[in-house]
Structures are given as C-alpha cells and as structure tokens.
Amino acid sequence: MRKLRSLRDPHGIQKFVDAMPYHLADTAWSPRRVLAENTSHCLEGAIFAAAALRANGFPPLIVDLEADHDTDHVLAVYQLDGHWGAVAKSNYTGCRYREPVYRTLRELALSYFNIYFNLRKERTLRRFSRPVNLARFDRLAWMTTDKPVWFIVYHLLEIPHYNLFSKRIAARLHRVDERVYQAEILGKAHKRGD
Fold this sequence. Notes:
By secondary structure, this protein is of the alpha+beta class. The protein has helices spanning about 1-5, 10-20, 30-35, 40-55, 105-110, 150-160, 165-170, 180-185; strands spanning about 60-65, 75-80, 85, 100, 125-130, 130-135, 160-165.
C-alpha cells in the first residue's frame, strides 16, 4: 500500500479522497478495493482515509455521526497537538475535511451540525460515537481484503452513541434556508432517475 504512504498527511489524504468520484452503490469496500475502483462513498472514504492515516503514523480511527431521518456519516479522525481533525468523503460540500482545531470529539461532531441536513432541509445530525480503532479488525484484513468489510458497519451499529443535544432542543430546530441548501448540494451525485 505504497500509495497510502505517498499521501503523507491528513490534508493530502483529503485531497486524494476528494478527487475520487462519489458512488451511490450499497457496498462496503476495503481500502484496497477503493484504490482499484478509484471511487467511494462516505463509509468507504472514511475507512480508506483511516488506512492512509495509519500508513502515515496515525492510529486508524473512525467516528460515526448518527442522524434522524437521514443517513449516518462516517469520519476518519486524527489528533495533532491534542486537537481533533477529520478526513471525510461526502456528497455534500461541507461534510468533508476538518482542520485539527477541535478540543473534543463533541466539538468536532458539532462542526458538522449546521450543514448536515436531508432533502427536506431538516437538520438531522443528533449523535456521535467514540472513535473506533480499526486495528481491532486486523485479523480480518480490513485494509487489504477483496471481500466486503460489512463487519465494520455492524460494529458501528452496535456501539454507544452520545446525544449532541436534547430532544427538546431538536424539536425547535429550523430547516436550512435555500442558500445553504444550494451551496451544500453543489456537485452532488444523483442516482439515475433522480
């Protein structure tokens, strides 16, 4: 996986992930398969980024952002000088890279809140997980297998997630306005027939 080492740092990894086309298939490809296909979606992009972070001296950590009435979003996270940052693949412009300036994972997760919405323009982000170190799956060859890595998805579904705010606050949230909506869907990939 020489290619992963060549990406050198989180920003270089993000640039590589951004350059890949976004695909909408229901897949769970390993980093090796992502490289071979040169495409990924959110989950695969995060797993790929975690592998690239590992190849460059960081632990391979991912965090799950959980939403109501929307799909979850998965981030590859890293720390520099005690501050959290993220590498992410998204079909929306603002749900990608975060510089390592966040003191806590909650702060990092909340940085995605304002631009995390569904097609009805509802703000949907509600919870976040603690980091999952993908080294726990080394015995399953998560970085290099040709088989799908659904076991990572199943693990994310089973672990605790922590509320970002109360249900009372969630009930008062406003929908995003048209300008935010249009800015975030710029370049959005669509399934055929959408």
